[in-house]
Amino acid sequence: MRMVDVIEKKRNGETLTKEEITFFVEGYTNDVIPDYQASAFLMAIYFKGMTAEEQAYLTMAMVESGDQIDLSQIEGIKVDKHSTGGVGDTTTLILVPLVAACGVPVAKMSGRGLGHTGGTLDKLEAIEGFHIELTEEQFVKQVNDLKLAVIGQSGNLTPADKKLYALRDVTATVDSIPLIASSIMSKKIASGADAIVLDVKTGEGAFMKTEEDAKALAHSMVAIGNKVGRNTMAILSDMSQPLGNAIGNSLEIIEAIDTLKGQGPEDLTELCLVLGSQMVVVGGKAESLEEAREMLKAVIQDGSALELFGRLIEAQGGNPEIIHNTDLLPTAKYQIDVIAEQSGFITKMEADDIGVAAMLLGAGRATKDDEIDLSVGIVLQKKIGDFVKKGDPIALIHSNTRDVEQSVSIIQKHVLIEEKEVKPPRLIGEVITD
Ligand code: URA
Ligand code: CA
């Protein structure tokens, strides 16, 4: 087989075979196929697309390029959750103990944040002593003992995706739905879960800016998962404004604890109940979404979800007292109000820009190697649809320096205040199961 023929076939809009796709992925991962041919091939996919079968072959070839986590020694249906990335998206921290408290084993592999989006691992590291490195054996044992564990992605998971993603980044081929879908699903499948619940974000703060694109991505990922034998479903959710109120690592741990106590922001709580209900049903612990939702509310009410979060922290080296005393978390030196410059209704609060404002305070990374400051961030005091008077605080900045002018001006510029009244954006969109 020659790569030039495979490129030509895709360039002409034809459908590739499993052998041709595997030939490319193996050849590229092993440095047999050069970057220039891979680049041309990615661009051909960008313009001509891929069928659901082709996407499943591409995904599985990437899964098979590296290690696969074996969770078969964990009893029960292992359910994973993935969000396509957002700002202030604290759901994983809440869902892991929440769903585990309902009896679903959660073996979670998480990532770090980059750019305007945050990552669960960084947030957990705001808890002093919390370590995210467990051996596969320790990981499996902890899930069997406690029902939950959170670790970083193993070094050799989907090396083909790592190499391809870096190439896509410099060849303008990141935002191709078949390439995004196969990239995300390859990592989920290699991580070993039996069932996958996807939270596909749409809006300013998301990869997919329109509902139409988000829907297409969701359909692609669900089709891939189901084709390769993992029960997969997706929920569309809004990311036109940040989720919840807190953006920043320590601040989001506090928000997660509040939510596990039943005192979290309304939007964040609702999204956790919606995603959690799906996870409990696919995990086989409830017959219906309504029953699952009642179970989730019950483990919030009786404190067992919060207690399980404490046990997770303890098992992985942190101080479980944090769940009762969040003063034990890192705190920033200064708290500075961002003030509304006029009266009116908040009509826009662009999530990606608010994410950048938090990143500039030190809460996130501009490049992969940046150090982050776990204590800093932003706590929104208002959301879209709220009325503000001139001089009211719209956000509270937590910072270790008084020089926060840049972040203040980004927030003021990207929180739009107008006379006309608007409704908050619809948080939960379609549920996609095929
Ligand atoms: N996230 C991924 O993991 N891969 C993509 O291609 C896009 C977002
Ligand atoms: Ca949040």
3D structure, described in words:
Helix content is 44%, strand content 15%. It is of the alpha/beta class. Strands 1-4-5-13 form a 4-stranded mixed sheet, sandwiched between helices. Strands 6-9-11-7 form a 4-stranded antiparallel sheet, with helices on both faces. Helix 10 (211-227) links the parallel strand 4 (195-202) and strand 5 (231-238). Helix 4 (52-63) packs across helix 10. The longest helix is centred in the middle third of the chain and has 17 residues, at 211-227. It is globular and about 65 Å long. The chain starts with a helix and ends with a strand. The mean pLDDT is 95. Calcium ion is lined by residues 88, 90, 243-244, 246-247, 252, 255, 268.
Which key features would you list for this structure?
single chain, 434 residues, alpha/beta, four-stranded mixed beta sheet, four-stranded antiparallel beta sheet, 16 helices, 13 strands, 44% helix, globular, binds uracil, binds calcium ion
